[in-house]
């Protein structure tokens, strides 16, 4: 059954999250063929366990849609983009539930690690319109368009979340020649702001054979399944071969644990091609196959960690290693730490000293100059940004997510956000760390003043009220505080002056390079 335009008004609608919208785009444009919709419980389980749909078709990753419970009674739901433009009708064939344990809570109090359940809807998606949001839209060709462009040529696809350096370019040129293949570069753009990645790939195109295509793919990272899924997308685009670095499978597997699928030709829809090792030959100053270089002429290339450290310190990425245009994109995406956006996130009990230290830090940074500083204090946020929220778990989480969202935006724009809420839940703090890290750096400071000292201070008389049972759900008394195990700094203020506490944070920021020493 297809849906008439007039019917749309009467159907309930849902705007999926960014990850699900990315999947929807690939379902609608055919890049996820043979899938025609979101998976049901059995398919999701067999894909997770064995990399196959229930009918045996190889498929590497679960493509699922979470829905609020009230939509599970519906037969059809309109899926819209973030602005409310209808993109598709989901014909619901099945609704199912799974249990998600809160992440980032290792070894915590089992009483507090309550499981949450989420509903999913499965079924075919009927296209209404292809999405129009997102950067580099003109490059995001559909599989049909890419296949038409490739016209049946042997094509080597490369999917990547990082830029290509001179070694990759040499290897690609060699393979393209050997296979007599066209090249298809697929920057995998996730939820973040990956425009720098796309620009970095566009910048290397002129070093590659004519006709090399760059097609950004909105593919959310799925550790352990990422490359296998990208290979399926490449196959849908008409590629015949898939570039796989020798260590790619192993690295992915290590990151994802036992969940990773093997990246062998039996598991992939197109032929994996592993380049031969290349290195920089110092004696002639060119990149070439290792087999052609005297071992003592090989100059080791910087590791990812070394590159990141160079960028942190604002050092030039050497030209022998990467093209200047790529280095410039890397620098723009990762400015030196003293210019990079930063969130300093204080967490701790009420009265532990968060606001006092946060204010002192903000003043000290403003006095030093060179940084724009925004203070998002717990009390102040609750009067404005989070006015009306309670202290239930859900409302606390929403409060912290709002703070995290604002902090991430400040960070993205190169500012310093200083946050000082209680933030009692580890999983929510971890979520904020992830949000901010997509934009810049995140430093967690646990103000670990013992409860007895906070209660002794009781500046606002709240502990006395909480003890008297007048405030239900008071953190530390009748509501949980999950101790951080990932804090960059822990400060107990019971034996410390406020000035000394601020100094500790400043020392950390100076040592880390975010703030220049005076
Ligand atoms: N039930 C309950 N539990 C904890 N705190 C309470 C509660 N009711 C009111 N207050 C006051 O609200 C401040 C904490 O707000 P936060 O936004 O930081 O809390 S949370 O992060 O959302 O948990 C906190 O301020 P700080 O003392 O600055 O931490 C308290 O003054
Ligand atoms: N080293 C210290 N750092 C921060 N606050 C301290 C310190 N020593 C004593 N205090 C006092 O503890 C109280 C902390 O209150 P506040 O900063 O509002 O905490 P919170 O924001 O965590 O609720 C203030 O009265 C502050 O003067």
From TrEMBL:
UniProt-listed HAMAP family: Adenylyl_sulf_kinase
- Full protein name: Adenylyl-sulfate kinase
Q: What is the lineage of its organism?
A: Bacteria, Bacillati, Actinomycetota, Actinomycetes, Streptosporangiales
Chain sites annotated for binding ATP: 348-355
> Does the keyword Protein biosynthesis feature in the UniProt annotation?
no
Extent of the signal sequence: none
Q: Does the keyword Cytoplasm apply?
A: no
Domain Sulphate adenylyltransferase catalytic, by residue range, is: 138-332
Return the SUPFAM superfamilies for the record: Nucleotidylyl transferase, P-loop containing nucleoside triphosphate hydrolases, PUA domain-like
Q: Which Pfam families match?
A: APS_kinase, ATP-sulfurylase, PUA_2
**Which EC numbers characterise this protein's activity in its record?**
2.7.1.25
Give an example GO molecular function.
nucleotidyltransferase activity
> Which pathway does it take part in?
Sulfur metabolism; hydrogen sulfide biosynthesis; sulfite from sulfate: step 2/3
Q: Which residues form the ATP-sulfurylase PUA-like domain?
A: 9-98
């Amino acid at each position: 059954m297809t849906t008439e335009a007039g019917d749309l008004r009467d159907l309930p609608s849902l705007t999926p999250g960014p990850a699900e919208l990315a999947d929807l785009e690939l379902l609608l444009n055919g890049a996820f063929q043979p899938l025609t919709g979101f998976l049901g419980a059995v398919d999701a389980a067999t894909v997770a366990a064995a990399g196959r749909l229930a009918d045996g078709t190889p498929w590497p990753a679960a493509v699922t849609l979470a829905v609020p419970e009230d939509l599970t009674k519906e037969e059809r739901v309109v899926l819209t983009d973030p602005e409310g433009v209808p993109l598709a009708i989901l014909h619901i064939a099945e609704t199912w539930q799974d249990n998600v344990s809160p992440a980032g809570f290792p070894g915590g109090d089992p009483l507090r690690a309550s499981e949450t359940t989420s509903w999913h809807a499965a079924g075919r998606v009927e296209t209404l319109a292809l999405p129009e949001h997102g950067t580099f839209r003109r490059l995001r060709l559909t599989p049909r368009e890419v296949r038409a462009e490739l016209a049946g040529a042997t094509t080597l696809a490369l999917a990547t979340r990082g830029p290509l350096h001179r070694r990759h370019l040499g290897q690609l040129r060699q393979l393209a020649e050997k296979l007599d293949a066209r090249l298809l570069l697929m920057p995998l753009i996730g939820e973040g702001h990956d425009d720098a990645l796309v620009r970095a790939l566009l910048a290397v195109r002129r070093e590659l054979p004519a006709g090399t295509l760059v097609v950004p793919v909105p593919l959310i990272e799925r550790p352990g399944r990422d490359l296998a899924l990208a290979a399926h997308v490449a196959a849908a685009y008409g590629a015949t071969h898939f570039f796989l670095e020798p260590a790619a499978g192993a690295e992915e597997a290590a990151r994802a644990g036992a969940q990773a699928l093997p990246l062998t030709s039996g598991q992939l829809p197109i032929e994996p091609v592993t380049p031969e090792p290349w290195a920089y030959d110092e004696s002639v100053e060119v990149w070439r196959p290792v087999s052609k270089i005297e071992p003592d002429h090989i100059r080791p290339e910087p590791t990812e960690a070394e590159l990141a450290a160079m960028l942190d310190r604002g050092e030039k990425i050497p030209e022998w290693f990467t093209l200047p245009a790529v280095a410039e994109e890397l620098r723009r995406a990762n400015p030196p730490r003293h210019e990079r956006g930063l969130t300093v996130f204080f967490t701790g009990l009420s009265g532990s000293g968060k606001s006092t230290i946060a204010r002192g830090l903000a003043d000290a940074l403003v006095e030093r100059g060179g940084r724009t500083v925004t203070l998002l204090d717990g009390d102040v946020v609750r009067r404005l940004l989070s006015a009306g929220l309670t202290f239930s778990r859900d409302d606390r989480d929403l409060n912290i997510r709002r703070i995290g969202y604002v902090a991430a935006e400040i960070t993205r724009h190169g500012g310093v956000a200083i946050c000082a809420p209680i933030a009692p839940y580890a999983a929510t703090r971890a979520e904020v760390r992830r949000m901010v890290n997509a934009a810049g750096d995140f430093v967690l400071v646990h103000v670990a003043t013992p409860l007895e000292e906070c209660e002794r201070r009781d500046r606002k008389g709240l502990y006395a009220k909480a003890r008297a049972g007048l405030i239900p759900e008071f953190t530390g008394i009748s509501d949980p505080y999950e101790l951080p195990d990932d804090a960059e700094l822990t400060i107990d203020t019971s034996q410390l002056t406020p000035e000394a506490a601020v100094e500790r944070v400043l020392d950390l920021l100076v040592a880390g390079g975010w703030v220049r020493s005076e």
